[in-house]
Amino acid sequence: MKKKILITGSSGFIASSLIDKISQTNEFEILCLSREKTGNNYFNVKENNFQQLLNNKQFQNIDIAINFAGYIPKPEKLDETYKCSDANVGYLNEFLKFCVQKKIPKFIQISSMSIFEGLKNQIISENTTPNPETRYSQSKLAAEFSILALRKKFKKGIIILRPGFTYGSKMNKSRIIPFFIQNLKKNLDLDVFNSNQIIPLTYIDDLINLILILLDSSCDVEIINVLNEEISKSEIVKILKKGMNSDSKIKFFDNQKLDVNIRFDNSYFLNYIEKIPLKMFSINFEKMI
User: By C-alpha distance, which of 71, 51, 68 is closest to 5?
Assistant: First the structure.
């Protein structure tokens, strides 16, 4: 019998990548919640009112719920940061209530490595105490607490995945790596600020492979920091410029207040996907240009 999976935020980059992957198999039945799509197993939940789905026969006997839904404010729209609380915590709490009512046995949450952003001079692992500084990262940590408080309600466990900056060929073109690529393609000059910032990178294919593995697992509570490598913003630009043979002139502006000694322990993640060799950014970027 096919496993039935309920996915929120299904039109987003990570969720749609997972849907594309599992749609190629015949192992799962997928139900998608989306603000943008309807029809063909896509459903729109108005004003976070999940109760409208309670009596829908398609939402019976769900095996796994995966929450990809969330809001990330753009730097130029910091006045919208309160939307983080509404989307990342308020929406989640209503969805959790629905999952408990439907007795869904397993819950997977996509969180974020940003919850560690305030830490310095440390090696960060799953056991590190978070220190979120922005409204976004605070809301992601609050969401984790909401889920953990209900851990006894999910008989086959809860899994919290914390990806770093997730990149791949289908990512939003407004994000920083596609922005660099677009400018380098046009041979435009670039000013790279905070160029010494260390960024934990997560390649979309490896994140999706991990989720596929976890769909068949059973646990109590599992928390995994998901990242391929740590790399500075200046290194990202240098790799892109060299690989694209761009004539762009680039100026790097370091920020001396940034902690360049921060490191990330990804050994737990690697244990899960030990049979799948990870590819680094110096190779993966070619699929994005």
Answer: 68
- Whole-angstrom distance, CA of residue 61 vs CA of residue 162: 27
What are the tokens at 96? 């959790």
Number of Cα atoms under 13 Å in the Cβ half of residue 67: 33
Which three-class secondary structure string do you get for the chain?
Answer: CCEEEEEECCCCHHHHHHHHHHCCCCCEEEEEECCCCCECCEECCHHHCHHHHCCCHHHCCCCEEEECCCCCCCHHHHHHCHHHHHHHHHHHHHHHHHHHHCCCCEEEEECCHHHHCCCCCCEECCCCCCCCCCHHHHHHHHHHHHHHCCHHHCCCCEEEEEECEEECCCCCCCCHHHHHHHHHHCCCCEEEECCCCEEEEEEHHHHHHHHHHHCCCCCCEEEEEECCEEEEHHHHHHHHHHHHCCCCCEEEECCCCCCCCCEECCHHHHHHCCCCCCCCHHHHHHHHC
CA–CA dist 69, 11 (Å, integer): 9
Q: pLDDT of the chain along its 289 residues, tens only?
A: 789 999 999 989 999 999 999 988 889 999 999 877 666 788 888 777 898 898 899 999 999 999 999 888 776 555 567 788 888 999 999 999 999 999 999 999 999 999 999 898 899 999 999 999 988 999 999 999 999 999 999 999 999 999 999 999 889 888 999 999 999 999 999 999 999 999 999 999 999 999 999 999 888 999 999 999 999 999 999 999 999 999 999 999 999 888 778 899 999 999 998 777 788 999 999 888 8
Instruction: Give residue for tokens 């009112």.
Output: 49
Reported pTM? 0.94
Domains and CATH numbers, the chain: 3-171+200-228+263-277 (3.40.50.720)
